[in-house]
Amino acid sequence: MKYASEFRDPAAAKVLLAEIATLADRIGATRAAPVHIMEICGGHTHAIFRYGLDKLVHEGVEFIHGPGCPVCVLPMARVDEAVELAERPEVIFTTFGDAMRVPGHRRSLLQAKAAGADIRMVYSPLDALELARRNPGREVVFFGLGFETTTPSTALSIQQAAREGLDNFSVFCNHITVPEPIRVLLSDPDMRLDGFIGPGHVSMIIGTHPYDFIAEEFGKPLVVAGFEPLDLLQSVMMVLRQIAEGRAEIENQYARVVPEHGNPVSLAAIADVYERRPSFEWRGLGEIDASGLRIREKYSAFDAEVKFAMGYGGATARVTDEPEGCACGAVMTGRIKPTACPQYGLGCTPEMPLGALMVSSEGACAAYWQYGGARAAE
């Protein structure tokens, strides 16, 4: 498919931008404030800034950056626990690169590696499985994190480890789910959200029906979107059209990739390996009921929390205060823009990050900095 030409076509973009302007004017005639559309996924945030869509759309539309960056929402306490696991002499700790520089209370994984911990960046949990095969005398721990997008690959790796009897492989499970924090945001009376751009990759796994409550209970439209500029512009247009027509539905702009009912193989693996935690702490949102996953008892031999007696009964073990002045939570929940954080560009830069949003490839602060936000700091 000719994605670069078909989904980045300037002429088609102009048509969509004109329709967005018409709809925004129509909606704006009945209200004073702009339409607030939250893009849940951090990948969408970066695409919006990479292609300058925030500058191109009508002034009556404002993008609100949501909590869809899995590394960003990981509380500092869980980073601390990952570092403690990695520092054990018998452990080879494996992780995606995004998590390496996320600061903990004491140090990041990258700093722990520099201090001598055996921490290795991998591209897949299958890489961690191979390390376990090659190092039978070491405990290989995979830092399992992410939304429903990465959850199936970790589940399939645990199933494979069970088939092979790789008892030196385990997962420090920090997988989380998307719908639950959206419910929390919509239940907050201080949040002003008119509609949502839904995450494409997550929806590829879970389908579109898990979002039905957004329209049915809260009366807000959501459009699942792809990641090219025309995907996002068309999705904004679809959200505005629903608002202008007084509708609230779940629509799928990304139908070329996202099936209505999700991926049955992935969903079956998730159901087999995981169960819901009673609660899980999210950076900036606090404890959210049933929003995190843990490994089922039948696979407990591959659960790092069990193997290393971390034992906290399914919820988050401990709460660590965020650094003073850090506004990651307010940015992640759309209450302020990154440049409004008192540490942005001062105490927190890509070279010396204070919060996860500045180092993650899906973090809103990183998007602002990379695509022009550094000038705002100056």
Radius of gyration: 21 Å
Order of strands, main sheet, comes to: 2-1-7-8-9
**Helix share of residues?**
25-40%
Distance between the termini: 41 Å
Structural class of the secondary elements? alpha/beta
Q: Sum up the overall morphology in one term.
A: globular
| Secondary-structure element string | HHEHHEHEHEHEHEHEHHEHEHEEEEHHH
How much beta, percentage-wise? Answer: 15-25%
Task: Kindly report the average pLDDT value.
Answer: 91
Contiguous runs where pLDDT drops below 50 for at least 5 residues: none
Q: Tell me the number of helical segments per DSSP (H or I, 4 or more residues long).
A: 16
Number of strands: 13
Largest sheet: 5 strands, parallel
Molecular structure report:
α8 crosses α13 (264-273). The strands form four sheets. A five-stranded parallel β-sheet has the order 2-1-7-8-9. Strands 4-3-5-6 form a four-stranded parallel β-sheet, with helices on both faces. It contains 16 helices and 13 strands. It has 378 residues and is α/β, with parallel strands linked by helices. The mean pLDDT is 91.
